[in-house]
Design brief:
Number of domains: 3
Structural class: alpha+beta
Strand content: over 45%
Low-confidence stretches: 19-53, 215-248
Number of strands: 22
Mean pLDDT: 73
Radius of gyration: 37 Å
Largest sheet: 6 strands, antiparallel
Distance between the termini: 105 Å
Helix content: 10-25%
Length: 448
C-alpha cells in the first residue's frame, strides 16, 4: 500500500512539472556554455523539431536566435548548420573567434551577421552553404528594386581592378564577380544606392489677371478679404513692383494660397488658364506646356527631279513651365528649380520664319512640403481690333470709308503661376486630391 502511494505521488509531481514546463521557453546550451546559447519559444520549437530533415538555406520561415561570446568561428558555423538543418563546406581551415548576438534571424541573416567580423564570405547552395576564404573569387547576382542596373554598373566601374561587373537591362539585375573582401564592399554600396526615390506631385495653377485688377489688390499683394463675418489678412513675403523688376516670386503657406485664390476669384477678372498636375521623382525635371507647337520651314532643298524637300521644325509657343525638385527628407523641405516662359508669335518674316516674343524667369526656392511658390510679372498683351460700319453702304467703294469705324484695344494682362510641390505617400495622397479639387471648383465657378 505504501509503495502504491509513493508511486502515485511521484506520478502527480512529474505530471505537474511537465505541464508547467510546456509553457516555458526552452534554452539549449552548448558544451562550451556560455560561449553559445539559443533560446526559442514554443512556436519556434515546432519549427526546430522539423530541422532533422534537409531544409533550404533560403527558407525564411525558420528564424532562430544566437548569443556567441568569444566563440570559435569554426564551431559557430557548425552549430548554425546543425540548428538550421543544412550542411556547410569549406576548402581550408577556418580560424578566428567571434562575438555576436543574433535575434530572430534567417540562415542568410545569421551568416551575414557572424561573418561580418571576419574576412570570410559564404555562398548559398541547394541544401548547404559554402564558406569562402578571402583569396577566393565569388560571383553574385543582385536584383535591383529601384535603381537602374546600367547606371549602377557605370558608377561601380573602376572601384575594383579585379571586379567584373555586368548589368542585365532586361531583368534589371547586376552580376558582380570579384574576391570576397571586395564583394562585401560592393554590397554595402548597393545597399545605399538601391533605395526608393521620393516621388513629388507638382501642382500648378496658371491664372491671368489684368494689370488694373492687380493694382486694386495692391502692388504688394497685401490686403484684407472679408469672408462672411471673418476678415482674412493675406500677406506675402515678396512685393510686386512692375516699374523696377520684370519677374517676381515668393512663397505662400497653404491657407494663404487658398485665401488668395478666392480673393482673385471674387475681386478681379481672373481667368484660370490651366491647372496641370504632374508627378516626377527626386531630381528629375517635370515639364508642362500650355500652348502650341508652331511649325516653320528651316531648310528647303530642290531635288534633281524638280521637286522641293522641306525640313520643318517646331517651336513651343505659349506657357512653358519646367520644375526640378530635390527632396531633403530630414527636415521635409524641397529645393525646387523653376524655369517659366511665356511666348507668343508676333509676325512672320522672310520665308515664313516666325518672330517670337519671349519672357523667361528662372529661380531656385526652398519650400516646405505643401507650400506654394508664386511667380508673377509675366506679361501678355491681348490685342483686339474691332470694326463698325453701316450695312450695305460699307460695300460701296466711295462710301465705305465714310461709314466705317475701327478701334484697336490693347489689354495688358499678367500671368501668375502658383506651384505647389507635395512629397507623395499613401497617407496624404487622398487629402491632396480632395483639397485641390475644391480649389479648382472655386476658381472655375462663375468663369465658364
Amino acid at each position: 500500500m505504501l509503495r502504491r502511494l509513493v508511486l502515485f505521488i511521484g506520478l502527480v509531481v512529474f505530471g505537474v512539472g511537465c505541464a508547467s514546463s510546456s509553457h516555458q521557453p526552452k534554452r539549449w546550451l552548448s558544451p562550451n556554455w556560455p560561449n553559445f546559447s539559443m533560446q526559442v519559444n514554443d512556436s519556434d520549437t515546432l519549427a526546430t523539431n522539423k530541422l532533422s530533415d534537409q531544409n533550404s538555406p533560403e527558407d525564411t520561415s525558420v528564424r532562430l536566435s544566437f548569443n556567441f561570446q568569444n566563440a570559435s568561428l569554426a564551431r559557430v558555423l557548425k552549430i548554425i548548420a546543425e540548428e538550421y538543418g543544412v550542411n556547410f563546406t569549406t576548402q581550408g581551415t577556418i580560424e578566428g573567434k567571434v562575438t555576436v548576438v543574433v535575434r530572430n534571424a534567417t540562415l542568410p541573416e545569421a551568416l551575414a551577421a557572424v561573418l561580418s567580423q571576419t574576412p570570410y564570405d559564404y555562398v548559398l547552395k541547394k541544401e548547404s552553404f559554402q564558406i569562402l576564404a578571402p583569396g577566393e573569387r565569388i560571383t553574385r547576382i543582385y536584383q535591383l528594386k529601384f535603381a537602374n542596373a546600367v547606371n549602377v554598373a557605370n558608377m561601380l566601374d573602376g572601384l575594383s581592378e579585379t571586379a567584373i561587373i555586368r548589368p542585365n537591362e532586361r531583368t534589371n539585375q547586376l552580376v558582380i564577380d570579384d574576391f570576397c573582401s571586395n564583394i562585401r564592399r560592393f554590397e554595402q554600396i548597393l545597399a545605399r544606392l538601391d533605395v526608393k526615390v521620393p516621388e513629388i506631385l507638382i501642382e500648378a495653377e496658371m491664372i491671368e489677371i489684368s494689370t488694373q485688377d492687380k493694382r486694386h489688390l495692391g502692388t504688394q499683394l497685401g490686403f484684407d478679404w472679408q469672408k462672411g463675418s471673418h476678415t482674412i489678412s493675406v500677406s506675402s513675403p515678396f512685393t510686386f513692383d512692375p516699374a523696377k523688376v520684370l519677374i517676381n516670386y515668393g512663397t505662400l503657406q497653404s491657407f494663404q494660397f487658398r485665401s488668395l485664390i478666392e480673393a482673385l476669384n471674387e475681386k478681379t477678372d481672373a481667368r484660370l488658364l490651366s491647372s496641370p498636375r504632374i508627378v516626377t521623382v527626386n531630381s528629375q525635371k517635370a515639364s508642362i506646356l500650355v500652348g502650341e507647337k508652331v511649325p516653320y520651314v528651316r531648310r528647303s532643298t530642290e531635288t534633281s527631279a524638280g521637286g522641293v524637300l522641306q525640313e520643318v521644325e517646331f517651336v513651343d509657343v505659349g506657357i512653358k513651365l519646367e520644375v526640378t525638385p530635390q527632396v531633403n527628407l530630414e527636415d521635409n523641405t524641397i529645393l525646387i528649380e523653376v524655369h517659366s516662359e511665356v511666348s507668343e508669335v508676333l509676325d512672320k518674316l522672310v520665308q515664313g520664319v516666325p518672330r517670337i516674343a519671349t519672357q523667361e524667369a528662372q529661380t531656385q526656392v526652398v519650400v516646405r512640403n505643401g507650400e506654394t511658390v508664386v511667380i508673377g510679372g509675366l506679361m501678355r498683351d491681348n490685342r483686339r481690333r474691332e470694326e463698325q460700319s453701316i450695312p450695305f453702304l460699307n460695300k460701296i467703294f466711295l462710301f465705305k470709308w465714310l461709314f466705317k469705324g475701327q478701334t484697336n484695344e490693347n489689354n495688358r494682362r499678367e500671368l501668375m503661376v502658383f506651384i505647389t510641390p507635395h512629397i507623395l505617400n499613401s497617407q496624404n495622397l487622398k487629402a491632396i486630391k480632395a483639397t485641390r479639387e475644391q480649389m479648382r471648383q472655386r476658381v472655375q465657378s462663375g468663369r465658364d
